Target: Maltose phosphorylase
Amino acid sequence: MRIEQSPEFQIHLQNLRHKEPLYLETIYNVGNGHLGVRDSNPLQGNNLDYIGSPGLFVNGFFDYNDVSYGEKYTEYPENDQVINRLCDPRYIRIKIADEDSATDHFQVDNIDKNLDMQTGLLHEIFSVTTPENRNFNLVIESFASLSKQNVYGIKYSIIPTNFDEEVEIIKVHDYINQQTHQQNEDVRVNQSVGQMQLDFIHDNGQPSYLVTTFRSQQGLILTYQAGENKLPDPPIEYFMDEDRHYGYHSKYFAKRGSQKEFSFLFAIGDIHPLVNAQMYSDQYVSALDNYIRDTTFRSELMASAQVWQTFWLHSDVVIDGDPAIQQSLRFNLFELNQSAGRDEYTSIPAKGLTGNGYGGHFFWDTEIFMMPFFSYTQPKLAKKLLMFRYHTLQIAKEQASEFGLKKGAMYAWRTINGYESSSYWLAGMAQFHINADIAFSVEQYYTITGDEEFLKKYGYEIILETARFWMQYGNFAEINGKQHFVINKVTGPDEYSALVDNNYYTNVMAQFNLRLAVKYATQFSNDDILSQLNVSGKEIDQMKEAADLMYLPFDKEKNIKIQYQDFEQLPRMDISKVDQSKFPLLLHYHPLMLYRYQVNKQADTIMADILFPLGNPIEELKADYEFYEPITTHDSSLSKAMYAIAASRVGKHRQSYDFFSQAVKTDLMNSHHNTQNGIHAGSLGAAWMGVVYGFAGIVNNAKHFSLEPKLPSAWNSIKFKLRLHGNECLFTIYQDEVQIELMSGKGIEVYVYNKRVKVEPENSKMVCEY
Ligand code: IFM
Model:
């Protein structure tokens, strides 16, 4: 297969506005949902002389750290989970005559870098100068395989520019706990590291390691092989010495202008319980070795590139008329695909697999901001992400019970293994909306795919147990002489308020969650599921009553939804008067200074408007927008894309475009100034929502699938594919016309501004003016 490199799919160093090394480490990461490798100075290794933050992250491979509290109350999480930063597989040691990159400071300069998002290949050229002024070009190609999730490949080419000398390359990775040389006071960056141990497995002719964690008791096996072909020139030899140095090396006489290549394929295992990893390490190594034996860097790259091509075929969004946004959006989709766990036991960390920011934890970011993209474009992958929640449902139930609730599931606000990992519970664990967010995502997946088997076998149980949580945590109470169901002491999405009563977003999501439990209980009334899950008619009646009586704070005079019960008593913060240097506010003010004001970190009540567009009069949405937008700082990267959708719906097209263009560039343009700590995975997914829910105006409420496009005036068209109930449709939206083409499937009905359109195999393309 030959892949033509299309410039629209390239992230070329020359075209990037920012060039700070740590930011580039993030931007040029490669990953595949199982593993992620930050770009790095390839000579850094564990040498603290070099400033960098390299590392390999394996999804779900973490260790625990103690959390220390001044006053530790019962049920506070005792441990924090943190994704491990493993040794950098890009590292190589180079010796030229008597100079050694491990002990002498070689100067490494970026000449060029290009990330080809079409193939997933990172191509880089460095100019390396030794202290004695020997200079060579180091060309590196690397990729994380999408066709074999355990495989990572790297190829080095060395080209001396001013010397003829003996060169030795040594590829050894026998350190653990990758060191980084980075100072960071930002609370969002995780400073703690896990404790790991590295053991060499046995001398089987290739380096194979067992990495185990002390406290989480996990084991991971890595092995790597050298050589593009059987007889590389110069030969690369395996070695092992008494100092536990084992790896590959190659020594040859290098002539100026000559080019020698050395390639390596890594197989990075799945995560096993420590005892299994120790007991079966030999078997695991041979199983892993199968992935990289009798193959080459090139053939693995080609196989992986083919999967990338399939990804783009189904998931690309083509914007005609805005090249900068086009590139950012593609980068976002590429990163989303690189970050998503695909094994049912992992999800998508908030920073993808590009750093240990937020500890590598999974949040609501996956279900609310990223799942729409996956459910509509890669439903099989979406199901796996939901299965992570199903597999951790027992833990969520255990947590609810230990917390003191009689029934239900209490999902962790932030976690890797299912258990709560938020040490600041006020803006952490108290975000109970995560439970309804997960149920919402199950329903959304079902609505999009029609996957009834999933719903019955797994999804309903999640919906039911989370609905049970609300019945336990909330209660019936009288407000202004009227009976209501209230949910007090929660934190909503906005993290500049905490522990409030009746957060609108939480309550509306809980209401939806309860209604889903009721709806499916009725639908499955003749099924065994209900008895298996001990659902009684009385329980369902109570859920229905709670949903019907759910307290949704609303100001009739202002026609606005109120963020939470007493929100209107607080003074409004005039954020236009706050000095620019004080943003994000969370880094400059004590939380209580923020909690006392009407000020939002991110879309909160507006999220309710976005997720429930129907039955929401436009006047009410406008009023909400005008009330909340001026007090929203967008200090969270999840916010602007949501405001872009809201602005588009209320006809504020200029603002919508501005919010969207800032949101879509979050990482590529480093607009939150912290991309160096990792990508903002939720924000990447939110940008896709900005296009599809915002500009294309897609609404899908199980009964209707409709579009109400409002294209930015600068755009000629947008084009994207969505899968709906087994049909794949290509939507091309122009300023005044929509084309819908059925690419596969039996046909589907769509509404464009209330006009019914049907595409079928015999009538597969429809044009609809609007
Ligand atoms: O989940 C988010 C939250 O909404 C805002 N703070 C960061 C979290 C992780 O992205």
